[in-house]
Amino acid sequence: MAEPTTNPATTTPPSPPSLDKDFYTWSTFFSILSGSATDTQRDAYFRHKDDMHEASDCARCEKDLSWLLSYSPVVRFMRHNINLLGHDLNASNMRCRRCTTNQSGGFDPEFGILLCANKFRNRGHMEDTMAHEMVHAYDHLRFKLDPLDLRHAACMEIRASTLSGECRFGREFITRGQWNITQQLQECVRRRATLSVAQRPACKDHAHATRIVDEVWGSCFADTRPFDDIYR
C-alpha cells in the first residue's frame, strides 16, 4: 500500500455539504449491482453510506484492533519484532479512521499506521492489512528504506504482500476471483506490488512499475525476515 503523506489523525475530510441523499436509495443500489450505475452515482452512494456509518465503522475497527493486538499470532509476532528494534505499535499509533481513497491502510514513519475503518470486509481483512503495514514499519526500522526510491518501494510492497497473508490462496480465490493454482502467490504479489509502485509520483507508467518490480524481485521475494519462512 502507498504510504499516506499526511497525518492519519486528520485523514478524514469533512463531508460534502451538498451531498445528494437521493443517491442513497434502493434504486441506486440495484443499479450498482446490475452494472448500470454511472461512476458518479456509485461514488455518491458509497460516500453517503460511509457518512452514515462512520461512527459504527470506527467503533468496530477499534474493537477489532484491540482483539487483534491481543490474540492475532501474526500481529503479535510482528509487534514483538518491532519492539526488538526499539519501537512499539499499539492502539495509540494504530488509528482507525474513515478513508476516502481505495486503500485499506497506510504506514507513515512519523504518525504510525492508518486503518481505514470503512474499507474492512471483516476482522480477517483488517488482520491482513495490519500485518501488511507492520511489515512496512519493520522494514523502515530495520533496513532504513527510502519510500521515495522506487526500488525500495517495490521491495517493501513485495515483502509486505508476501508476508502479510493477503496473497494466500483462499484470500485470492474467495475475494478477488483469482483461480490460478500454480504460482498463485507470486502472481498476486507481483500484481499488488506493481499496482502500488505505479501509483508513486516518480513512476512513469505501468510498464515502468513492472520493470522496477522485476529488478528487485529475486532478492525481495526470498527475504522473509523476521519470519523463518512465509508464514501465511
From TrEMBL:
Family as reported in the entry's similarity comment: Belongs to the peptidase M76 family.
E.C. numbers: 3.4.24.-
The protein's name in its UniProt record: Mitochondrial inner membrane protease ATP23
Key words of the record: Hydrolase, Membrane, Metal-binding, Metalloprotease, Mitochondrion, Mitochondrion inner membrane, Protease
Taxonomic superkingdom: Eukaryota
Topology relative to the membrane: Peripheral membrane protein
Function: Has a dual role in the assembly of mitochondrial ATPase. Acts as a protease that removes N-terminal residues of mitochondrial ATPase CF(0) subunit 6 at the intermembrane space side. Also involved in the correct assembly of the membrane-embedded ATPase CF(0) particle, probably mediating association of subunit 6 with the subunit 9 ring.
Lineage, highest ranks first: Eukaryota, Fungi, Dikarya, Ascomycota, Pezizomycotina
Compartments where located: Mitochondrion inner membrane
A Pfam cross-reference name: Peptidase_M76
InterPro entries listed in its UniProt record: Peptidase_M76_ATP23 (IPR019165)
EC top class named in words: hydrolase
